[in-house]
Amino acid sequence: MKVVPSKSSEWMRPVASQKPAFAIIEIDRVSQVFQTSARKDHLALSDISLTIEEGAFVSILGPSGCGKSTLLYIVGGFVSPTSGAAKMKGRAIMGPGPDRGPVFQEFALFPWKTVLGNVMYGPRQQGVRATEAEAQSRALIEMVGLKGYENFYPKELSGGMKQRVALARTLAYHPEVLLMDEPFGALDAHTRTRLQNDLLNIWERDRKTVLFVTHSVDEAVFLSDKVVMMSKSPGRIREVIDIDLPRPRLRNELLLDPRYQKYVVDIERMFDESDAAGAPS
Amino acid sequence: MIAPATIVRRAAPVLACIGLLTAWQLASLGLKNDSFPTALEAVRAIPDILGDKESLINILASLRRMAIGFGIAVLVSIPLGLLMGRSRAVASFFNPLLMVIYPVPKAALMPIIMLWLGVGEATKILVIFLGVSLPVIYHSFEGAKAVEEKMLWSGAAMGLSPWQRLVRIVLPAALPEILTGCRTGLVLALITMITSEMIARQSGAGNILFNALDMGQYDTVYAMIIIVGAMGICLDAIFERVRAGLVRWSEPQFDMPLSFS
User: Where would I find the ABC transporter domain in this sequence (chain A) (predicted)?
Assistant: First the structure.
């Protein structure tokens, strides 16, 4: 069954862009083995190759345990692959760097810093003057909808607000690529929807490259230009699907759009088929 | 207008003290033992001690060496504990050493230390240092180990070097746990300070206590116990103030009077 033609090699952003697609991230035959016990090795990722074009919103979609987060950590430079290599702008990724900004499901805010302190942290580290960093950070805090909460500590915020701070904190040091690791996974359905909408609105402003890990099919389809479907044990790329839906996307229009519905249904069916073929999840 | 609950909360520690002193008074009156003065006699002896210049100098000397021992211990133990918490190699090196030292009563080492360093300040400060170090190392270690990996990754992505992450992320993130260790360390500093002065008797609060005991001045003995106890409570209360101020960002709101501050 093949519903959506996968033309990942000559893939371009659906919204016309002037410059030709430039491969900002290249993942070349990456495998990752974890030692689960003294005798047993677990192959988390097997021979993954993937190219991500600049300015694209790409989701990595897969069941839990398929290694999709590990793949993101490899691009972030937090984990080194057992074999293969990941490149950013043609240069091998040797470690974390401010060109790739992570946003984690666990928020990972600095609890001893206020909202403003958290957002200012990156720019200050990059050597931006305090007054300038503060002005930029305040603007970002307003952009993510947290004006008035500048002096709150993370423990005083709800999960959704914490994730907004985490997003602002990462955007503050201007990474070229956003690495989002199931960022809305810990949030309730309502908050999740609102953050998806807000993320798209923010993304529309400068169209940074985003690598977004999720296990939610409709989240992936709603947000992305391209969905990378993974299967588990070992983690492999199963399918790369271009999501050819107009932007800017409005939730209330998109949910009624038959094309959107078809993407969601088709992708879910593909998952069901792979489940039926393999072990029950 | 103060709420009744607040009055109860404020009065509770006072009531507890009065209750203890009353029980003491009754026990002493009942036993009629010369070496067990009544609470009133002991309390009456306190102004005599605190009014005596010699005694005051001794008590201040005690506090001074306690502060030095505690200070050095904290300055050494926090970095060591943090390094152990973040580096498996450092932890494997120091853990066995600490396991050996941990159960040894530090005062039991005093005779040996006295042979090296004499009965002066250095010996006592070293014993206090040993007493304070272990809980501070242990809590710094646990605190550093518990720091969320993703927090360190976030810092690394911002360009923080490993050392910067240790000082600017691990240290503040572990601070609540570190300060719990320091609070235990402070009480242990007081205990080892008195113990060291009992063994190497030369000056200090412990020396006053034992001199009084030798001379059979039991009211002074008990008065000194009260003074030492009060010092402990005051130091702890001051420390708790400082601690609460430093880690307000991590404190849950609680409703139980868990401290005297």
Answer: 28-257
Q: Tokens 């400068």 sit at which residue?
A: A206
Which amino acid, residue A4?
A: V
What's phi and psi for A214, nearest 5 deg? -155, 160
Chain A residue closest to B149 (CA)? A108
Instruction: Report the share of chain A in percent with pLDDT over 90.
Output: 75
Which residue in B153, B160, B172 is closest to A125 by CB distance?
A: B160
**DSSP H or E stretch at residue A69:** helix A68-76
Is residue A134 in a domain? no
Does residue A161 belong to any structural domain of this protein?
A: no
Domains of chain A: total = 1
Contact check, Cβ <8 Å, B250/A110:
no
Give the domain extent around A278. 21-95+218-281
CATH number at residue A32: 3.40.50.300
Contacts of B243 in chain A (CB under 8 A): none
Residue A25 falls within a domain, yes or no?
yes
Task: Report chain A residues touching chain B, CB-CB < 8 A.
Answer: 76-78, 95-98, 100-102, 104, 106, 108-113, 121-122, 125-126, 153-155, 169-170, 173, 175
Distance from CA of A244 to the nearest CA of B (A): 32
Per the prediction, chain B carries an average pLDDT of 90
Residue A43 lies in a domain: yes
Report the alpha-carbon distance of residue B55 to residue B68 in Å, rounded. Answer: 20
| Rounded CA separation A73/A179 (Å) | 8
- pLDDT, tens digit (0-9, with 9 covering 90-100), for A86-97: 999 999 999 999
SS3 category, B6: helix
CATH label, B38-247, candidates 3.50.50.60, 2.40.170.20, 1.10.3720.10, 3.40.50.360: 1.10.3720.10
Residues B113, B127: Cα–Cα separation, whole Å:
8
Domain ranges of chain B: 38-247
CA distance between the termini of chain A: 21
Answer with the residue of higher pLDDT: A68 or B120: A68
**Chain B residues with at least one Cβ partner in A under 8 Å:** 148, 150-151, 153-154, 156-160, 169, 172-173, 175, 247, 249-250
Gap between the Cα atoms of A93 and A75, Å rounded = 7
Residues of B in contact with A112 (CB under 8 A): 172-173, 175, 247, 249-250
pLDDT score at A260: 96
Residue (of B94, B85, B69, B188) closest to B140 by Cα position: B85
Taking CB atoms and an 8 Å limit, are A112 and B250 in contact across chains?
Answer: yes
Reading phi first (left if > 0) and then psi (alpha if -120 to 50, else beta), residue A227 is in beta
